[in-house]
Specification:
With 167 residues, this protein is mostly helical. Helices cover 59% and strands 6% of the residues.
Length: 167
């Protein structure tokens, strides 16, 4: 495998024009040299993170609906993997409708862990867990657990008495 090529600044414009005239050649070369292409692309991404971020930002803006659709599919796929790993049913009551199943932190503290994480990162972390920090609960059982453990959930009304409803 040869080294990654560096292109002189004047040659970049020529290369762009050549690629436009010969679109199939580039695709064929990448297919034939997939491993080398992948290694060089990863190296370039590490050396030029600002360019890669800007490219991704522009791509997301220009292909918003495609990006949203891809993100949803990816999210759903990871969520399905998580549910399958943990049995696809509530560990308390056995409810199995995936629309109402939630990932629960066995020992609490889920809100703190979620801060600063994307859903993708969170699902990957849950999938990689081997310590048994997570479980699947239905929405009802999850809220009951929050109440029973007096967890400081961000959706609970602070300062109100437990189970008291004022009219």
């Amino acid at each position: 495998m040869s080294e990654c090529l560096t292109i002189a600044s004047g040659a970049k414009e020529y290369q762009r024009e050549w690629r436009k005239k010969h679109p199939d050649y580039n695709k064929k070369w990448i297919q034939e040299h997939r491993e080398q292409y992948t290694v060089c692309r990863r190296k370039w991404k590490q050396e030029h993170p600002e360019h890669f971020r800007e490219y991704n930002r522009k791509y997301r803006q220009e292909h918003k609906s495609q990006y949203i659709q891809y993100t949803r599919k990816s999210h759903q796929k990871l969520r399905t993997q998580v549910l399958e790993k943990y049995g696809s049913k509530c560990v308390r009551c056995g409810f199995s409708d995936v629309r109402a199943l939630q990932i629960d932190h066995v020992n609490g503290g889920g809100i703190k862990e979620l801060r600063g994480m994307t859903q993708h990162q969170y699902f990957k972390k849950v999938l990689a867990d081997i310590e048994g920090k997570y479980q699947i609960l239905c929405a009802n059982c999850n809220w009951i657990k929050v109440d029973e453990n007096n967890e400081n959930h961000r959706f609970l009304l602070r300062g109100s008495k437990k189970h008291e409803i004022k009219h």
